[in-house]
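[Discussion] Sanity-checking designs against the backbone

I'm trying to build intuition for which residues belong where. Below is a structure token string of 372 positions. I'd appreciate it if someone posts a full sequence so I can compare it with mine line by line.
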């Protein structure tokens, strides 16, 4: 699923451009998918509490793939816009279901490794999908296709890869435990709300910071440092490789100092490298800072999700995970436009990078104060 989704997202914008849609309409299509995720995240968490995760995945994945095929087959802006919204709604079930599913089917000792390996697997799948996305259009062109048709058939292939995820989903042996509803005291309800707010805020502030600069990293290398396109691909691939190593190391560190301290220190230590990127014009220093920052900032994030799932009751895990997804998605979505405007009008990446660093610092402090 990760391979198919990564390749699809890599080429989808290029396909839309090839059928003469402008950047404004392409941006609206991307926003529609994000909006679908935000709209459905909370309802999905309640649905997941009441039914089988396996069944939901076997329904939502084909629905999303049908939306992909319609987006690629029909050259109508409004149809593409609405199917993008629907695909965002369908995809949210996979995102919301993952963490509760891991919690239901693992022991406490396994979980830090399980969450980290899942994140690492998604990075590996994304890397393979991106490589295929670069190779397949050229291979399809050899059969006499060109332009939009090349992208269209490549996107069909990636849609098929997403659909292939049904095969391992069918083999899931899920045992739904019978939930016994008990009346809860008012104090317990208030405590649950307090925990969810404390989990939501650091993630939201991190998302705000990330949106200001992270989506523009490829442009940072291209326009600020004048790096050739092929080298940007190399840097990003190397970054993903180092993140995978970091993800595998993080659970070992967490065993020694705890999950929250691991998340806190990894975020804090990443900040100076982002500041360096904002001030330097030295390509070597910028690349090293980029690689170290990405590794440190991402290596412990699965541990925070694992920690969040452990802080709430089993019945609350789906909605808590949905809130984490909303926090990150909404924060990043709100600030991405601001980051783009700052870069465009200032012709500099310094202020967005500094502001991101400040927000990462605030997020880390909130995390430490709430859960130290």
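Best answer:
Here's mine. Compare freely.
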């Amino acid at each position: 699923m990760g391979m198919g989704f990564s390749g699809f997202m890599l080429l989808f914008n290029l396909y839309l451009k090839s059928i003469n849609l402008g950047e404004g309409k392409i941006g609206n299509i991307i926003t529609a998918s994000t909006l679908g995720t935000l709209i459905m995240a909370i309802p999905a968490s309640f649905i997941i509490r009441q039914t089988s995760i396996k069944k939901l995945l076997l329904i939502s994945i084909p629905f999303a793939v049908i939306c992909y095929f319609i987006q690629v087959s029909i050259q109508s802006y409004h149809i593409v816009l609405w199917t993008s919204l629907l695909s965002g709604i369908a995809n949210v079930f996979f995102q919301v279901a993952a963490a509760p599913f891991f919690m239901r089917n693992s022991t406490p000792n396994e979980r830090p490794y399980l969450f980290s390996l899942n994140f690492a697997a998604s990075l590996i799948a994304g890397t393979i999908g991106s490589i295929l996305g670069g190779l397949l259009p050229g291979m399809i062109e050899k059969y006499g296709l060109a332009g939009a048709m090349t992208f269209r058939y490549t996107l069909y292939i990636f849609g098929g890869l997403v659909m292939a995820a049904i095969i391992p989903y069918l083999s899931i042996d899920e045992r739904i435990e019978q939930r016994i509803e008990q009346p809860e005291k008012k104090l317990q309800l208030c405590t649950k709300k307090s925990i969810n707010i404390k989990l939501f805020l650091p993630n939201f502030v991190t998302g705000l910071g990330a949106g200001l600069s992270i989506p523009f990293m490829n442009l940072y290398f291209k326009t600020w440092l004048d790096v050739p396109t092929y080298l940007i691909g190399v840097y990003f691939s190397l970054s993903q490789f180092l993140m995978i190593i970091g993800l595998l190391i993080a659970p070992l560190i967490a065993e020694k100092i705890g999950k929250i301290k691991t998340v806190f220190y990894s975020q804090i230590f990443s900040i100076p490298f982002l500041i360096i990127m904002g001030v330097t014009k030295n390509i070597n220093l910028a690349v090293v800072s980029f690689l170290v920052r990405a590794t440190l900032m991402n290596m412990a994030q699965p541990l925070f999700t694992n920690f969040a799932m452990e802080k709430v009751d089993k019945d609350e895990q789906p909605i808590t995970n949905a809130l984490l997804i909303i926090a990150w998605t909404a924060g990043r979505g709100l600030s991405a436009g601001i980051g783009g405007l700052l870069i465009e009008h200032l012709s500099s990446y310094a202020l967005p990078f500094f502001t991101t660093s400040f927000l990462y610092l605030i997020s880390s402090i909130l995390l430490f104060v709430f859960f130290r």
